[in-house]
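Worked Example 4.2. Consider the chain below.
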Amino acid sequence: MDMRSSLYYLAVLGFLLLEGCQSALLTIKDEGDARAERIEEKQRELEDLEAHNEALKVEKERLLTELDKRELSLSDLSLSLVRLRQENEKIVADSVRLQKQKKEVDEKIMQYENEIQHLTSDGELSVEEKERRIKYLKEEIRAYLEFGLALQ
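Applying the procedure from the previous section yields the following structure tokens:
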């Protein structure tokens, strides 16, 4: 092989090497851009989740305030639980832990709604017994809101 052929092969090899480097750099840039887009998307999702959590917290605080008044009727209590459930449903739970928490909150709200329905429809309870059970239910809901509601 003469000098000219060697230089030609070196030039071709250099060109191929540069092409490979350029391709690798473009791939790295594309991956970086894709990663940046995923980060932005996750940040938007986090902001949405935080907004929903804040709305849930506001609804929880409003319900606690209403419970403090002790004038809350069963229908008012039921309506407040419906609003609390609606805020819980708005939460996008994309992790297993959040899905589990969201399900637990929904089940607890349904349990309280069922108890309210039972108290409303049970005509055999005396007025005193009904008031005692309503007071107990309000205290139970208050305790849950203050200590058990973990989605904040």
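The mean pLDDT is 78. Residues 3-148 form one domain. Compare this with Example 4.1 before moving on.
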